[in-house]
Amino acid sequence: MKKLAAQVILLVGFFLGSWLVIYQVDWMHLFNVEQINKKTEEKLGNLFWDFFNHSQKEIQDMAVLIPIDSILNRICLANEIDTSQIKIHIFKNDEINAFALPNKHLVIYTQLILTTENEAELSGVICHELAHMEMNHVMKKLIKEVGLSALISITTGNNSAEIVKETAKLLSSTAYDRSLEREADTKAVDYLSKAQIDPEPFANFLYKLAINESKNETLLIWMSTHPDSKERAEFVIEYSKGMPKNFRPILVQTSWDTLQKTLREWK
Amino acid sequence: MIITEKFTYQPGEHEAEKASNSYLMSLIAIIAGLPFPIINLIATIAFYLGNKKGTYFVRWHCTQALVSQLSVFIMNSFGFWWTVSIIFGSETVSNKYISYLITIFIFNLLEFVATIYTAIKTREGSHINWWFYGDLTNLLCKP
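Predict the joint structure of the above. Result:
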């Protein structure tokens, strides 16, 4: 019996050892899995982008795009994120919402920009969405909610308009996992700190949304897709304690004012 | 790993054929049931039960054919459900997953080759005793 037990241990050890040895090879690279994933993400990104682009009005005004680009550039440069990969889109919409789509499309609604009081608050939201993108949360969420088989089916031509519409809605109006939200908040504060932007206004923005929720809840989509805002605001404050406070402004006040004024006129 | 030993008696032609068939049965089941690991096991269990009242030599080899599948059955089942959770669930393809599939492929291949060799040798009347599985069979199957 002892001999058999020893043989079982040896057998299991041999199997696990073989697995460990084989694991040392980068099969993902060898089988081009990442490349295939990237292509699937690209296709999905284009499909969802087409959907939003056809159903909503994108703002192309330079008075809006230039300040947003400046904020994005500062964050990306400081955090070694390839800015050319990020496709930022400002849509005229009365909902307070911002979300990431596959293939690094970042959508921000005009009402969200109008609700932010300064560039640091807006930067916080942008950093949070960038974190979702950089940590592959968008694809993780899609796979979890829709399933890989359905996603492949969408990208291989069985993309009925209804499925694309439902999946796009899912991306823009449902929450990520609690753990993914926490990861994105942590990363967002790191991004802000490296970009020399104060994280406190981001926490204030979360507090503000939590307070205003009851007054105007139908339009507070970013709030409903990012629950527990009060708790998250506290986490942002706590996590950013002890970080360097060498903050620098990104925009001159007139640029920020022009951005807000232009968007108000669009209303 | 595989030892040819002397059996307690010299099996007859008919016994050798039946004992050899138990390995062939598991081979056919492996080919038919590759995506569904449970099929291999069910087929071998069915053959084992059918020969429960056979001679000691036949019973012994039916038992070895059955128990030798248990480890690959566990490995394949784990791989099967991991694949299902990737296709329909929230899991993603990772280096860990691919290396697991390659590992179980190698173990299945080893089992396949060993089974063919044992089936041929048993058909000739030789008594093939596998490492671990042979000892386990000795414990389960008495004359």
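Chain A touches chain B at residues 1, 3-4, 7-8, 11, 15, 18-19, 22-23, 25-28, 31, 33, 37, 139-140, 143-144, 147-149 (CB under 8 Å).
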